[in-house]
Write a structure and sequence with these properties.
Length: about 200
């Protein structure tokens, strides 16, 4: 066409589409990550050792008024599954879906790693441990099924999270056995007092 480069117009549209797709991915992942932050971590923060509310929540948890922690982990993983299915069904661009899943996974793992690193100087409460154990055990597999490659799944952050959770899970088992043993001893002492 007379003096007008038609290909410049296409280049501008391609750039606009690319910027829009990047922006969409960023917003979507941001919304999904906000659920982990506000829906899971804010609830788990209540159980931190040494805080007033942590002591109160521990007392409630001893009477099983707050649940086991696995309920919160299960509901978060159900949220992940539902959203993965929706994204996969509604968006037809497989490369965009895969890169979105990679980013969502990476940001979740980074948040988990940061949250656990902030608590290196203290052990996790049983509620925190059971919730995070469930999430960590399921997260890898769910994103593997979505096609996220192994090299992205086995990131350094993931390895730190996995190692810390193995340590915390073992500590929780030992603590639970100790409490159960001490509880049995306490009950036996109480029985002896009533029989005398």
């Amino acid at each position: 066409v007379d003096g007008v480069d038609v290909h410049k117009y296409h280049t501008k549209i391609d750039d606009l589409i690319e910027k829009t797709l990047v922006s969409m991915k960023s917003c979507l992942v941001g919304k999904l990550i906000s659920v982990l932050k506000s829906g899971v971590f804010d609830k788990l923060n209540r159980y931190d050792e040494g805080t007033m509310i942590g002591n109160f929540m521990t007392a409630l948890n001893k009477n099983n008024l707050t649940g086991s922690g696995s309920d919160l982990g299960k509901s978060y993983m159900a949220f992940c599954r539902v959203n993965m299915d929706q994204i996969e069904k509604k968006i037809k661009d497989d490369l965009w879906v895969l890169s979105t899943m990679e980013r969502w996974y990476a940001e979740q793992v980074q948040m988990l790693c940061t949250w656990l690193t902030d608590r290196l100087d203290r052990s996790l409460h049983h509620y925190q441990c059971t919730c995070l154990t469930h999430i960590v055990k399921k997260l890898y597999g769910e994103f593997e099924l979505m096609g996220v490659p192994k090299d992205k799944l086995d990131s350094p952050h993931w390895q730190k999270v996995e190692q810390r959770m193995q340590t915390e899970e073992a500590a929780c088992v030992l603590t639970g056995a100790e409490i159960e043993e001490n509880g049995d001893l306490y009950e036996m002492a109480e029985d002896r007092k009533t029989h005398v």
